[in-house]
Amino acid sequence: MYYALNGTNSVVFTMLDIIMIARLHAMYQRSRVMLIFFVIIFLAIMIACAVFMVIGLKDTAGKEELILPGTYVCSYRYKGDFQFLFTMVWTLSIVWEVLALCFAVWVAVKHFHSLRQFGPSTGSTIGDCFRVLIKYHVLFFASFVCICCIQLGSFSPELFSSNAIGELTLDGVLQILLCIQMFILGPRLILSVREHHAKLVANSDAEISMNSIAFQEAVHVPTSSTV
Fold first, then answer.
1. Contact status, residue 168 vs residue 73, Cβ threshold 8 Å
2. Beta carbons within 10 angstroms of residue 98's beta carbon
């Protein structure tokens, strides 16, 4: 169960990172050079994380039964360099998220600066799209930093030597935040863009219908006056 949970989390976060690369690729106007650059950095970090994780999981000791008031709970104890290896995994993950956020903010600032030369309609449309992208990227990054801080804090020796209730409480909070990150904020990276696109299409259809009505009225008035 422990290995399945860690494997599932790794797969989901990898999928979310791929979505992040696709968003960055779109923000950089589908530049092939930037896409290759992002993929190389992502693969280098993910391969290093996978190696550290495999080595760390081998250092997982057997189950340890904790007796709480009226409850029996199984916990895991670790040996070797497990804490250092998993600290490296989360540190590299933070490095990747920081890089992705920096590249997203940089291209957004660049586009906002260049939008001053466009008219109000085109500039506002592109600007709104970038605001949506940056908004949910920042929310995703903030939640990921919270998860990393809790996860890194759980590796401290003081926590391992503390009582079982505090350790299990922190682990429960971590699992809740992970679920929010993977199944709420993660899908919002895609849904926010789709909702914004649907809103633009709806507004465009409304403008077309209003223009057609105005055109029909303009044609009808001179026809009726000539009669």
1. yes
2. 13
